[in-house]
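JOB MANIFEST
job_type = single_chain_structure
chain_count = 1
residues = 104
[input]
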Amino acid sequence: MSTEYTILRVRVTAKDADTLRAVLRDSRPDVGGRVLQNQDGTFTFDAYVSPEQAEDLAREGVSVETVEDATATGRARQAEVGEGDRFGPEDAVPQGLALKVRDI
């Protein structure tokens, strides 16, 4: 799979609020949820980024952990979805004001 279509969910942890602000200002990641302050004073948030952006997030005072491949998870969920109208009976005849164009 090409990396240009791969989106990762990463967990970013910054050592303090100033470092967190710098990361958010410089890289502007797609943040998934809110920022949490941990017991040790660090700040953590989840972000959805490309693999290249994930590498760019890592810097002094910032750790980046890959949680999952969000693209693969999304494709797996799409595969669970069926086709057609699951609520309509197979022998249902469409009704309304439209003209019937051909018999099936």
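[summary]
The chain has a mean pLDDT of 86.
The helical segments are 17-27, 51-57, 70-79.
exit_status = 0
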